[in-house]
Design goal:
Layout (H helix, E strand, L loop, with lengths): L7 H19 L6 E5 L1 E3 L4 H8 L14 E4 L7 E3 H12 L5 E5 L7 H7 L3 E4 L2 H13 L8 H8 L6 H6 L8 H10 L8 E6 L2 E5 L6 H7 L4 H10 L3
Helix pairs in contact: 3-9
Amino acid sequence: MGGVPSSNYSRHKALVESMLSTAEARRPGLRVVRMRTSLVFQRSAGSEIHRLFLGRLLPWHLPRFRRIVPRFDGLAFQATDADDVARAYVSAINSDVSGAFNIAADPVLTPDVIAAAVDGRAFPLPRALVRALAAVSYRARLQPTEPGWLDLATETPLMDPACAQRDLGWEPKVAATEALRSVLDGGHPLSECRWRRVGPNRHRIDRPPMHSTFDHQIAAGPHTGAVERVLSAGTP
């Protein structure tokens, strides 16, 4: 099936690619666009990402002296702001392109780049030790991230977005480091909320709407009706 064997996420991605190849072979006239995106970050998803990857026991915001990023060979991944990813999808939908497009912003997130972005420091550690700690803590249910995610970050080749830039006219507006900082800033459950006084001793939490510039961009495209039908089919 392909993918990184220890990563469920990677193997599922490879399975979807295989399914698309089968669909293309059976229906030669079908236009298939494969959007291969990096990790997608946005501020409003910070608390959810915290819950999915770190769980309730591990803190999200650390004092500066504790912001240590493990450094070992091969650790590098890519990230893109959610609105930039949405613009790439809109461009693909509103054009006649087909094929695969890599969607990733610069710079590549290495330990040193991450440490500089979060005002921390990179510290060399053996990869085997970091993976062993991840595996033990995962099996002990201290954190929810399987060690396969670490393998994914070290074994997945970096993507070149040149085709998306050339054929879709796509350029990310937000650097990967800014996308990373935004999701970290949004990690607190109330970071996106505002307190509003509604009485002498009462306050209400106003949460911002969960939307993206994607909503506005898609409305202007020629394939709006088809997209709305696809989106509606995926909602309960």
